[in-house]
Protein backbone atom coordinates (compact mmCIF):
# COMPACT_ATOMS: atom_id res chain seq x y z
CA UNK A 1 0.00 0.00 0.00
CA UNK A 2 1.32 3.44 -0.79
CA UNK A 3 0.55 6.68 0.94
CA UNK A 4 1.43 10.09 -0.38
CA UNK A 5 1.58 13.53 1.10
CA UNK A 6 1.46 16.66 -1.01
CA UNK A 7 2.59 19.98 0.34
CA UNK A 8 2.31 23.43 -1.16
CA UNK A 9 5.70 23.30 -2.84
CA UNK A 10 4.46 20.29 -4.76
CA UNK A 11 6.83 17.96 -3.01
CA UNK A 12 5.14 14.63 -3.21
CA UNK A 13 6.62 12.12 -0.87
CA UNK A 14 5.48 8.57 -1.09
CA UNK A 15 6.30 5.90 1.33
CA UNK A 16 5.39 2.29 1.34
CA UNK A 17 3.04 1.45 4.13
CA UNK A 18 3.47 -2.15 5.06
CA UNK A 19 0.15 -3.95 5.03
CA UNK A 20 0.19 -4.75 8.73
CA UNK A 21 1.79 -1.54 10.00
CA UNK A 22 -0.24 0.41 12.56
CA UNK A 23 -2.31 3.33 11.26
CA UNK A 24 -4.55 4.72 13.99
CA UNK A 25 -3.11 6.17 17.20
CA UNK A 26 -4.64 3.29 19.13
CA UNK A 27 -2.91 0.73 16.89
CA UNK A 28 0.43 2.53 17.20
CA UNK A 29 0.09 2.70 20.98
CA UNK A 30 -0.74 -0.98 21.22
CA UNK A 31 2.18 -1.94 18.93
CA UNK A 32 4.52 0.10 21.15
CA UNK A 33 3.16 -1.60 24.23
CA UNK A 34 3.99 -4.98 22.74
CA UNK A 35 7.45 -3.87 21.67
CA UNK A 36 8.55 -2.48 25.04
CA UNK A 37 9.00 -3.64 28.61
CA UNK A 38 6.16 -2.68 30.95
CA UNK A 39 8.18 -0.05 32.90
CA UNK A 40 9.52 1.54 29.70
CA UNK A 41 6.10 1.74 28.01
CA UNK A 42 4.56 3.02 31.20
CA UNK A 43 7.23 5.73 31.50
CA UNK A 44 6.18 7.11 28.11
CA UNK A 45 2.42 6.62 28.44
CA UNK A 46 1.85 7.71 31.99
CA UNK A 47 1.41 11.09 33.58
CA UNK A 48 1.55 12.72 36.97
CA UNK A 49 -0.65 11.73 39.91
CA UNK A 50 -3.95 10.06 39.05
CA UNK A 51 -3.50 11.09 35.38
CA UNK A 52 -6.55 13.36 35.34
CA UNK A 53 -4.73 15.77 33.01
CA UNK A 54 -3.59 13.00 30.65
CA UNK A 55 -7.24 12.00 30.24
CA UNK A 56 -8.48 15.59 30.02
CA UNK A 57 -5.96 16.50 27.34
CA UNK A 58 -7.45 13.91 25.01
CA UNK A 59 -11.09 14.22 26.10
CA UNK A 60 -11.12 18.01 25.77
CA UNK A 61 -10.64 17.74 22.00
CA UNK A 62 -14.11 16.17 21.77
CA UNK A 63 -15.67 19.40 23.03
CA UNK A 64 -14.56 21.35 19.96
CA UNK A 65 -16.42 20.73 16.73
CA UNK A 66 -16.05 22.09 13.24
CA UNK A 67 -18.69 23.63 11.01
CA UNK A 68 -17.23 23.17 7.50
CA UNK A 69 -17.67 25.39 4.45
CA UNK A 70 -18.37 23.65 1.16
CA UNK A 71 -18.04 24.33 -2.59
CA UNK A 72 -14.82 26.21 -2.04
CA UNK A 73 -12.40 24.70 -4.65
CA UNK A 74 -9.81 23.13 -2.40
CA UNK A 75 -7.88 21.49 -5.22
CA UNK A 76 -4.71 23.43 -4.34
CA UNK A 77 -3.68 23.48 -0.71
CA UNK A 78 -1.10 25.55 1.12
CA UNK A 79 -0.01 23.95 4.37
CA UNK A 80 3.08 26.09 4.87
CA UNK A 81 3.80 28.31 7.87
CA UNK A 82 6.52 30.84 8.54
CA UNK A 83 7.95 30.93 12.05
CA UNK A 84 10.87 33.17 13.02
CA UNK A 85 11.53 33.90 9.37
CA UNK A 86 11.78 30.21 8.38
CA UNK A 87 9.12 28.73 6.11
CA UNK A 88 8.15 25.15 6.85
CA UNK A 89 5.97 23.11 4.47
CA UNK A 90 3.64 22.00 7.26
CA UNK A 91 2.55 23.39 10.65
CA UNK A 92 3.89 20.33 12.50
CA UNK A 93 6.93 19.98 14.78
CA UNK A 94 8.15 17.04 16.83
CA UNK A 95 8.02 17.84 20.54
CA UNK A 96 11.18 17.46 22.62
CA UNK A 97 11.21 14.01 24.19
CA UNK A 98 14.17 12.84 26.25
CA UNK A 99 15.65 9.35 26.65
CA UNK A 100 14.49 8.18 23.20
CA UNK A 101 16.85 5.19 23.28
CA UNK A 102 14.26 3.67 25.53
CA UNK A 103 12.08 3.26 22.44
CA UNK A 104 14.76 2.40 19.88
CA UNK A 105 18.55 2.09 19.90
CA UNK A 106 18.82 4.77 17.17
CA UNK A 107 16.67 7.14 19.29
CA UNK A 108 17.01 10.79 18.30
CA UNK A 109 18.94 9.91 15.16
CA UNK A 110 16.06 7.83 13.79
CA UNK A 111 13.47 10.47 14.67
CA UNK A 112 15.50 13.37 13.27
CA UNK A 113 16.07 11.47 10.00
CA UNK A 114 12.36 10.69 9.58
CA UNK A 115 11.47 14.31 10.44
CA UNK A 116 14.02 15.59 7.91
CA UNK A 117 12.36 13.55 5.15
CA UNK A 118 9.07 15.38 5.77
CA UNK A 119 10.73 18.75 6.47
CA UNK A 120 9.23 18.67 9.96
CA UNK A 121 11.44 20.41 12.56
CA UNK A 122 12.71 18.12 15.30
CA UNK A 123 13.07 19.68 18.74
CA UNK A 124 15.90 17.91 20.52
CA UNK A 125 15.71 17.51 24.29
CA UNK A 126 18.42 18.45 26.78
CA UNK A 127 18.22 14.85 28.04
CA UNK A 128 18.43 13.28 24.59
CA UNK A 129 20.15 9.96 24.10
CA UNK A 130 22.46 11.38 21.42
CA UNK A 131 24.33 14.68 21.46
CA UNK A 132 23.44 17.86 19.57
CA UNK A 133 26.46 17.26 17.33
CA UNK A 134 25.49 13.63 16.60
CA UNK A 135 21.98 14.66 15.55
CA UNK A 136 23.29 17.61 13.51
CA UNK A 137 25.71 15.35 11.69
CA UNK A 138 23.04 12.73 10.96
CA UNK A 139 20.66 15.34 9.51
CA UNK A 140 22.78 18.24 8.30
CA UNK A 141 20.17 19.69 5.93
CA UNK A 142 17.11 19.74 8.19
CA UNK A 143 15.62 22.19 10.68
CA UNK A 144 16.24 21.44 14.31
CA UNK A 145 15.45 23.34 17.48
CA UNK A 146 17.04 22.76 20.89
CA UNK A 147 15.03 22.37 24.11
CA UNK A 148 16.73 23.52 27.28
CA UNK A 149 16.21 22.34 30.83
CA UNK A 150 17.93 24.95 32.94
CA UNK A 151 20.87 23.38 34.79
CA UNK A 152 21.59 24.19 38.42
CA UNK A 153 25.02 25.20 37.15
CA UNK A 154 23.88 27.72 34.55
CA UNK A 155 27.19 27.68 32.71
CA UNK A 156 26.21 24.19 31.49
CA UNK A 157 22.97 25.63 30.06
CA UNK A 158 24.75 28.48 28.32
CA UNK A 159 27.28 26.08 26.84
CA UNK A 160 24.58 23.76 25.50
CA UNK A 161 22.84 26.73 23.92
CA UNK A 162 26.14 27.76 22.33
CA UNK A 163 26.61 24.22 21.01
CA UNK A 164 23.11 24.28 19.48
CA UNK A 165 23.88 27.62 17.82
CA UNK A 166 27.15 26.30 16.43
CA UNK A 167 25.42 23.18 15.13
CA UNK A 168 22.95 25.33 13.15
CA UNK A 169 19.82 24.85 15.29
CA UNK A 170 17.10 27.39 14.58
CA UNK A 171 15.55 28.16 17.98
CA UNK A 172 15.96 27.60 21.71
CA UNK A 173 12.96 26.23 23.60
CA UNK A 174 13.18 26.79 27.35
CA UNK A 175 10.89 24.38 29.19
CA UNK A 176 9.50 26.19 32.21
CA UNK A 177 7.09 23.61 33.67
CA UNK A 178 9.71 21.11 34.83
CA UNK A 179 11.49 22.94 37.62
CA UNK A 180 11.00 19.69 39.52
CA UNK A 181 9.86 16.32 38.21
CA UNK A 182 6.12 15.65 38.37
CA UNK A 183 4.83 13.16 40.96
CA UNK A 184 4.70 10.09 38.71
CA UNK A 185 3.14 7.21 40.58
CA UNK A 186 3.65 4.54 37.94
CA UNK A 187 7.38 5.19 37.62
CA UNK A 188 7.61 5.06 41.41
CA UNK A 189 5.75 1.72 41.42
CA UNK A 190 8.16 0.33 38.80
CA UNK A 191 11.17 2.01 40.48
CA UNK A 192 12.00 3.18 36.98
CA UNK A 193 14.20 6.15 36.08
CA UNK A 194 15.59 6.26 32.52
CA UNK A 195 17.98 9.03 33.56
CA UNK A 196 19.47 6.84 36.29
CA UNK A 197 19.80 4.07 33.70
CA UNK A 198 21.88 6.37 31.49
CA UNK A 199 19.41 6.89 28.62
CA UNK A 200 19.50 10.69 28.71
CA UNK A 201 23.14 11.66 28.78
CA UNK A 202 24.05 12.38 25.14
CA UNK A 203 24.41 16.11 25.70
CA UNK A 204 26.07 15.83 29.09
CA UNK A 205 28.79 13.26 28.44
CA UNK A 206 29.87 15.43 25.49
CA UNK A 207 29.78 18.77 27.31
CA UNK A 208 33.16 20.04 28.46
CA UNK A 209 31.63 22.47 30.97
CA UNK A 210 29.57 19.70 32.58
CA UNK A 211 32.48 17.26 32.59
CA UNK A 212 34.74 19.85 34.24
CA UNK A 213 32.37 19.93 37.23
CA UNK A 214 32.88 16.22 37.97
CA UNK A 215 35.71 15.12 40.21
CA UNK A 216 36.01 11.81 38.36
CA UNK A 217 34.39 11.00 35.04
CA UNK A 218 32.66 7.64 34.86
CA UNK A 219 29.13 6.43 34.14
CA UNK A 220 28.10 6.74 37.79
CA UNK A 221 29.35 10.32 38.22
CA UNK A 222 27.80 11.39 34.90
CA UNK A 223 24.38 10.09 35.94
CA UNK A 224 24.71 11.70 39.38
CA UNK A 225 25.85 14.97 37.79
CA UNK A 226 22.77 15.04 35.54
CA UNK A 227 20.45 14.30 38.45
CA UNK A 228 22.11 17.10 40.46
CA UNK A 229 21.63 19.61 37.63
CA UNK A 230 18.37 18.76 35.94
CA UNK A 231 15.83 20.33 38.31
CA UNK A 232 16.02 24.01 39.13
CA UNK A 233 13.11 25.28 41.25
CA UNK A 234 14.66 28.76 41.49
CA UNK A 235 13.96 29.43 37.79
CA UNK A 236 12.28 32.81 37.26
CA UNK A 237 11.84 35.63 34.73
CA UNK A 238 15.32 37.00 35.39
CA UNK A 239 16.76 33.76 33.98
CA UNK A 240 14.64 34.25 30.87
CA UNK A 241 16.04 37.77 30.54
CA UNK A 242 19.59 36.47 30.91
CA UNK A 243 19.09 33.65 28.41
CA UNK A 244 17.64 36.09 25.92
CA UNK A 245 20.85 38.14 26.20
CA UNK A 246 23.03 35.03 25.81
CA UNK A 247 21.59 33.73 22.55
CA UNK A 248 21.13 35.15 19.10
CA UNK A 249 18.49 32.49 18.35
CA UNK A 250 14.74 33.02 18.83
CA UNK A 251 13.74 32.05 22.37
CA UNK A 252 10.53 30.08 22.93
CA UNK A 253 8.97 29.30 26.34
CA UNK A 254 7.34 25.87 26.60
CA UNK A 255 4.70 25.20 29.23
CA UNK A 256 2.61 28.39 29.24
CA UNK A 257 -0.99 27.87 30.43
CA UNK A 258 -1.94 31.23 31.97
CA UNK A 259 -2.70 34.30 29.80
CA UNK A 260 -0.78 36.53 32.24
CA UNK A 261 2.35 34.41 31.73
CA UNK A 262 1.90 34.73 27.98
CA UNK A 263 1.85 38.51 28.40
CA UNK A 264 4.91 38.42 30.65
CA UNK A 265 6.72 36.37 28.02
CA UNK A 266 6.09 39.17 25.53
CA UNK A 267 7.20 41.77 28.08
CA UNK A 268 10.48 39.88 28.61
CA UNK A 269 11.17 39.84 24.89
CA UNK A 270 10.48 36.15 24.31
CA UNK A 271 10.01 35.30 20.63
CA UNK A 272 7.35 32.59 20.90
CA UNK A 273 5.45 30.40 23.36
CA UNK A 274 4.21 26.83 23.48
CA UNK A 275 0.90 26.30 25.23
CA UNK A 276 1.52 22.94 26.87
CA UNK A 277 1.00 20.97 30.05
CA UNK A 278 3.83 18.56 29.19
CA UNK A 279 1.37 15.89 28.11
CA UNK A 280 -0.03 15.71 31.65
CA UNK A 281 3.31 14.54 33.05
CA UNK A 282 4.01 17.45 35.38
CA UNK A 283 1.14 18.92 37.46
CA UNK A 284 -1.89 16.68 37.56
CA UNK A 285 -5.18 18.58 37.61
CA UNK A 286 -4.07 21.46 35.40
CA UNK A 287 -6.26 22.82 32.65
CA UNK A 288 -6.15 20.83 29.41
CA UNK A 289 -3.92 22.47 26.87
CA UNK A 290 -6.70 23.00 24.30
CA UNK A 291 -8.94 24.68 26.89
CA UNK A 292 -6.09 27.04 27.79
CA UNK A 293 -5.39 28.00 24.19
CA UNK A 294 -8.21 30.40 23.13
CA UNK A 295 -7.66 32.93 25.93
CA UNK A 296 -3.92 32.92 25.34
CA UNK A 297 -4.36 33.43 21.60
CA UNK A 298 -6.63 36.35 22.41
CA UNK A 299 -4.22 38.18 24.72
CA UNK A 300 -1.15 37.48 22.57
CA UNK A 301 -3.04 38.99 19.64
CA UNK A 302 -0.52 37.80 17.01
CA UNK A 303 2.42 39.65 18.64
CA UNK A 304 4.46 36.41 18.75
CA UNK A 305 3.83 32.86 17.46
CA UNK A 306 1.72 30.64 19.71
CA UNK A 307 2.54 26.95 19.37
CA UNK A 308 0.66 24.12 21.02
CA UNK A 309 1.09 20.60 22.37
CA UNK A 310 -0.51 18.01 24.67
CA UNK A 311 -3.17 15.63 23.46
CA UNK A 312 -2.75 15.79 19.68
CA UNK A 313 -3.18 12.29 18.27
CA UNK A 314 -4.36 12.80 14.69
CA UNK A 315 -4.24 15.35 11.89
CA UNK A 316 -7.79 16.40 12.67
CA UNK A 317 -6.72 17.34 16.22
CA UNK A 318 -4.07 19.61 14.73
CA UNK A 319 -6.71 21.22 12.53
CA UNK A 320 -8.86 22.07 15.58
CA UNK A 321 -5.92 23.64 17.38
CA UNK A 322 -4.92 25.69 14.33
CA UNK A 323 -8.54 26.79 13.94
CA UNK A 324 -8.43 27.98 17.56
CA UNK A 325 -5.53 30.23 16.61
CA UNK A 326 -2.29 28.31 17.19
CA UNK A 327 0.42 28.96 14.60
CA UNK A 328 1.82 25.42 14.68
CA UNK A 329 1.50 22.21 16.66
CA UNK A 330 3.82 19.71 18.31
CA UNK A 331 3.19 16.01 18.81
CA UNK A 332 4.87 13.90 21.49
CA UNK A 333 3.77 10.37 22.35
CA UNK A 334 2.42 9.41 18.89
CA UNK A 335 5.89 9.63 17.31
CA UNK A 336 7.59 8.00 20.30
CA UNK A 337 5.24 5.01 20.06
CA UNK A 338 5.88 4.89 16.30
CA UNK A 339 9.61 4.81 17.01
CA UNK A 340 9.20 1.94 19.46
CA UNK A 341 6.95 0.01 17.07
CA UNK A 342 8.81 0.57 13.80
CA UNK A 343 12.02 2.59 14.25
CA UNK A 344 12.81 5.34 11.74
CA UNK A 345 10.41 3.84 9.20
CA UNK A 346 7.65 3.76 11.80
CA UNK A 347 8.11 7.48 12.51
CA UNK A 348 8.05 8.18 8.76
CA UNK A 349 4.81 6.26 8.36
CA UNK A 350 3.27 8.12 11.26
CA UNK A 351 4.23 11.49 9.75
CA UNK A 352 2.89 10.54 6.32
CA UNK A 353 -0.43 9.42 7.79
CA UNK A 354 -0.71 12.40 10.14
CA UNK A 355 -0.04 14.93 7.39
CA UNK A 356 -2.41 13.20 5.03
CA UNK A 357 -5.13 13.34 7.70
CA UNK A 358 -4.46 17.06 8.20
CA UNK A 359 -4.57 17.72 4.47
CA UNK A 360 -7.78 15.72 3.98
CA UNK A 361 -9.36 17.45 6.97
CA UNK A 362 -8.48 20.88 5.56
CA UNK A 363 -10.09 20.00 2.23
CA UNK A 364 -13.24 18.66 3.83
CA UNK A 365 -13.47 21.76 6.03
CA UNK A 366 -13.32 23.93 2.93
CA UNK A 367 -10.03 25.64 3.84
CA UNK A 368 -7.19 25.81 1.32
CA UNK A 369 -4.57 27.69 3.31
CA UNK A 370 -3.49 26.66 6.77
CA UNK A 371 -3.15 30.34 7.68
CA UNK A 372 -6.86 30.79 7.00
CA UNK A 373 -7.86 28.01 9.36
CA UNK A 374 -8.56 30.44 12.16
CA UNK A 375 -11.50 31.76 10.17
CA UNK A 376 -13.11 28.32 10.39
CA UNK A 377 -16.16 28.19 12.61
CA UNK A 378 -15.38 26.03 15.60
CA UNK A 379 -17.82 25.52 18.43
CA UNK A 380 -17.15 24.50 22.03
CA UNK A 381 -19.92 22.16 23.09
C1 LIG B 1 8.52 10.15 27.35
C2 LIG B 1 8.43 11.64 27.30
C3 LIG B 1 9.57 12.41 27.53
C4 LIG B 1 9.51 13.81 27.45
N1 LIG B 1 10.66 14.53 27.60
C5 LIG B 1 10.61 15.89 27.47
C6 LIG B 1 11.80 16.65 27.53
O1 LIG B 1 12.89 16.12 27.65
N2 LIG B 1 11.68 18.00 27.43
C7 LIG B 1 10.46 18.64 27.29
O2 LIG B 1 10.40 19.86 27.22
N3 LIG B 1 9.33 17.91 27.21
C8 LIG B 1 9.38 16.57 27.27
N4 LIG B 1 8.22 15.84 27.15
C9 LIG B 1 6.94 16.54 26.87
C10 LIG B 1 6.72 16.72 25.37
O3 LIG B 1 7.61 17.66 24.83
C11 LIG B 1 5.30 17.22 25.06
O4 LIG B 1 5.05 18.39 25.82
C12 LIG B 1 4.22 16.21 25.34
O5 LIG B 1 4.64 14.89 25.02
C13 LIG B 1 2.99 16.58 24.51
O6 LIG B 1 1.94 15.77 24.80
P1 LIG B 1 1.51 14.49 23.91
O7 LIG B 1 2.46 13.39 24.30
O8 LIG B 1 0.14 14.28 24.37
O9 LIG B 1 1.64 14.87 22.45
C14 LIG B 1 8.27 14.44 27.19
C15 LIG B 1 7.12 13.66 26.95
C16 LIG B 1 7.21 12.28 26.97
C17 LIG B 1 5.97 11.48 26.66
From TrEMBL:
Q: Which cofactor does it need?
A: FMN
Q: Start and end of every FMN hydroxy acid dehydrogenase domain?
A: 17-381
Give the superkingdom in one word. Bacteria
Q: Please write the reaction equations for the catalytic activity of this protein.
A: (S)-lactate + O2 = pyruvate + H2O2
Molecular function terms from GO: oxidoreductase activity
Q: What residue intervals traverse the membrane? A: none
Q: Which UniProt keywords apply?
A: Oxidoreductase
The stretch of residues making up the signal peptide is none
Q: To which protein family does this belong?
A: Belongs to the FMN-dependent alpha-hydroxy acid dehydrogenase family.
Its recorded name reads L-lactate oxidase
Identify the species of origin: Virgibacillus tibetensis
Amino acid sequence: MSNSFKSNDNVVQSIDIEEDSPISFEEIESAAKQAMSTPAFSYIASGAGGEETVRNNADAFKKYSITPRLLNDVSKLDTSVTIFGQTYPTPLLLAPVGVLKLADEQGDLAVARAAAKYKVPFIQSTVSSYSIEDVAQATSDSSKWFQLYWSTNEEISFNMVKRAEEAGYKAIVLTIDTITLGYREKDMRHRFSPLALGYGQGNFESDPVFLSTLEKVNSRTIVQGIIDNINYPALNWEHVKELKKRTSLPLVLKGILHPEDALLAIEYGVDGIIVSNHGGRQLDGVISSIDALPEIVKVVDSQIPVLFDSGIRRGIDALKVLALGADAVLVGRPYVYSLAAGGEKGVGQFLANFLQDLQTSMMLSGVKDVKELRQLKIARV
